[in-house]
Amino acid sequence: MTGFLTDVDRPRSGAAPDPARDCPWQTARALARRAAGAPLPAQGVDLAARFARTLAEPLAAVADLPGFDTSAMDGWAVAGPGPWRPAGRLLAGAAPQPLADGTAVEIATGAQLPPGATGVLRREHGRSDGGLLYGTVTPGQDVRPRGQECRSGEPLLPAGTRVTPAVLGLAAAAGHDRLTVHRRPTVELLLLGDELLESGVPGPGLVRDALGPLLPPWLAAAGAEITGRRRIGADPGRRHEAVRQSTADLVVTTGGTAAGPADFLHGTLDAVGARLLVDGVAVRPGHPMLLAALPGGRHLVGLPGNPLAAAAGTLTLALPLLDALSGRPRPAPRTEPAAADLPGHPADTRLAPVVRTGHGVAALPFDGPAMLRGIARAEALAVVPPGGVPAGAPVELLEAP
Ligand SMILES: Nc1nc2c(c(=O)[nH]1)N[C@H]1C(S)=C(S)[C@@H](COP(=O)(O)OP(=O)(O)OC[C@H]3O[C@@H](n4cnc5c(N)ncnc54)[C@H](O)[C@@H]3O)O[C@H]1N2
Ligand code: MOO
User: MoaB/Mog domain location, by residue (predicted)?
Assistant: First the structure.
């Protein structure tokens, strides 16, 4: 097991490099990121609903924010020391007239402050008596001055930022109609297995396809464009053709990874001239997962058929590859303390569904490779190193689907 990284990095003369076999979990993730090479090219897209993309350029403000001195409260804009003689009303969107000392104008939150105003007296702090307005206002009180949040041209977010709903809102507020983002990686999903039912109640010998529903929304939320989803049966020719003809940046297969009577996938990879980069990972569940380079610079991630093992393969290989293709930096590991001992595998990393409690994360039951009952309740998956994590010690967490 040791030394495989060197094998991957340094091909022997003339020979294709050996794939990393049973490689440590962290190394598998690093190899998946590295396999992507450069991020996909940049493209300009309309702002509307460009969710889950990644900025290919820094986002800079096109205007000052706010663009004018703004009232932060409902009340009166006042000029000079009080009391003030109030006259008129300013609503958001109105163009204000200059305000002379000793006068006030009723003003709404968000309205432009009149030139000459000292500050804003909140409605609940003002007192009217004999046609005059009384209260105390310090200079600049309850005013959002022009450029308080940013100046035009100021960088707001770096390249590599994931476009969240909040980023869309900020981009619009700062004057953008379009964003420069990386092209989305395309993903085709091939579900291997004759026993899979696409609808209805599973019966003897038949199981409902759980991964067809589970994977597309998860991968789409990670920035992928799902271009196809097909169930492929036992015919090897159809399988080879499906992989060979796919134009997706990433082909994700499910099932057929283990060296059993139906070890479909290695045969298909041979047939299409793929090069294995990762052939098994020292992780439970999910150890037969694999990553291969397809001809033409595309990739294939082979997820095990057991559904929790497939989720482990998604976290280990598919998401890091998609992140790198999308131009996102490696996320900083997040850790939280374990609420109780998290048992480990003697030699492999374990990915365990957990929930947060008041005193740390706790493992959920029903975490077998074929089970989804644990992960469906999970707030995260804990990365439990070989040997386990004692109560109170920090454990790395991955986002649950
Ligand atoms: N001799 C060996 N047998 C197995 C090994 C091994 O190393 N040597 N590894 C075991 C481990 S660990 C896993 S994980 C599984 C991996 O299985 P495969 O990737 O080969 O998948 P299949 O055999 O096709 O299916 C396994 C299991 O999952 C069910 N399945 C498949 N697809 C779906 C789906 N889309 N939705 C729900 N369930 C699905 C399938 O019906 C099987 O029950 O291999 C072990 N065996
Ligand atoms: O990798 Mo398998 O998921 O242990 O059952």
Answer: 188-324
